[in-house]
Amino acid sequence: MPLEDVRPLQEGLPFGVRIGGLTREKLEDKALRDEIDALFVKHGMIVFEDVEQSDEMQLALSSCFGPLKEHPVKAVGRVDSDRMPGVIEIRSKRGRGIVEVDGKQVSHWLPWHFDHCYNDELNRAGVLRSVERVEEGGITGFLDGIALYEAFPKDLRERIEGKEIVYTLSTQYDELKFGRPAQYRMIEPKPSSPEFKAQAASMPRAIHPAVWTRPTGEKCLHVSSYMAQGILGDETPEGDALLEEVCQEINRLAETCSYHHTWRPTDMAIWDNLRMLHCVSGNNPDEERLMYRTTIAGDYGHGRWEEAPREAVTADAMA
Fold first, then answer.
1. Is 1 a member of any domain?
2. Does the record's keyword annotation contain Iron (predicted)?
3. Tens digits of residue pLDDT in 186-198
4. Would you call 261 helix, strand, or coil by DSSP?
């Protein structure tokens, strides 16, 4: 049973496809599942259109790409750990986590990043669906690391290639060191539980390459401005200036070669976390937004801890 409805994600983009007409019954066909996974490897991102909006459908789609894994941050909200391991909820609550970006106040804004950069092990992908939408904003942007590498200025690409980036679990807006918009300030911090603070304090710094080569041969520029602390071995004004230049170039190129998805009630989407960067536009702080995301296992083997993990600090000690 071959796929009947496969289209480019957006005209002129070098990544992504749209697939329509899938049902849970069709996904029982192994050949069709393999075809979907092959399209994902080739294109890096899929938007599934007009699909059943249920936990069961999200799990069925996710299983095309590998087993689920638990999110590494214990304080992240789970949907139903017993029935759906690895499914998390991403909730933007009213009046919480507000930042001013280029003169506009929004909640749950996120810069260009890849997931789990603060960990030694990444995840292959995530499948995302919108459960509660907002009237304006809440748009998810996607940017291809292969296209980024090819579009980067040659001199800057040569200076960052071979470098490794240091990351920590630092989620607050005032902790963003690199790639800030021209006008940027934190208005209201994100909620942060004692459990989250305890885990963040116990985690060593994670190291990931700025550029890596995929098994299929393409080079991928893979730098997250979110949670980045500097260049390994060069946490100096000169090294920081280089990383800032890279992050700002990513911002600049994203203006013309990224895709920004406005969520509909019948959409789900998957992106390759080892290849793509993504961002979130933020939304009106008076509105709430809720997303469900599965986490697909599968690492690239290039991340590591800077030092051996420490024994976890107790939440009571951090309170």
1. no
2. yes
3. 999 988 888 878 8
4. strand
